[in-house]
Amino acid sequence: MAIVWTGELSGNAVIAATDADGNTLWSWHLWITDYDPAASAYTTPAASSGTTWTFMDRNLGAMSATPADGFRTHGMVYQWGRKDPFPAPNGPTQMDENYNYINGMDGETPLFDIEGNILPTLLSLAEYHGTIAKSIANPMTFYAMTYTHTGEMDEYGEEIVINDPVTGDWTDPSDDDLWGGESGKKSIYDPCPPGWKVPVSDASGVTPYDWMKFASMTWDNTNMGAIQDGQWFPACGTRAYASGGCDFQQANAYGGIWFGTKGKAASDLSLYPTLYGQYMFIINGKRTFKVNKDKRSQGMSVRAVRDI
Running DSSP on this structure, what letter comes out for residue 123? Predict the structure, then answer.
């Protein structure tokens, strides 16, 4: 049995078990904080189906749930279905049309190895054509996707864009049950601590964020986030699906919270093969607290529910 000694510091770290050649066999996220999830858990009102969910009061990896603590409330972000975390943006960013940083505004949190050496940014380490096996062997690698503009229009007048992989997922082949959205059971790829899991829609199709309503929400312009029923939902930004770079637009802050249920795809996947994950949108406006879908290669927040 291995024991990891964290000392007196708080924060987030990833540790790995390796073979004799240094190849990663498995990795774990250490969320080191003075926080008892059960002490401040929030149980939702019963949905129309009768289902309730008991949520943590903060995103995975967050060091605080107090709005005034700013970026400390943001936590980590995840590609849909992955177990390993990436730091959320830690400041304003500017990106060009290719999702690369400009004007020195990268929003990156400095990362260090066990000896205190600073590591390259996640954007510079990003790769393409991910698989489950690659993600296990390379927990710090963000598997981005590319896309090609065809200049052709579909029947709705929208330009046809070809994704690579064609699904827009970070992994090829895709798997709809990586976070238990099909089976309803916690999987080995679930990033939540023991006793908690990524929320999924119930058997009736009601989403775990059905209780969140725009009319009941208060937007905090100073700290950039939404409050409902005393629960704080910061606009954390994302890691862009096409590069792995941080995207935090301070002038129009937004974010999303993944849950483990797949998003609705086109009925004809041969023509429109993109697959999606579902998330709750956090942004200032009537789109706040609306369930949306996005490409699974996008990096967004996760908030755990009690695993019962």
Answer: H
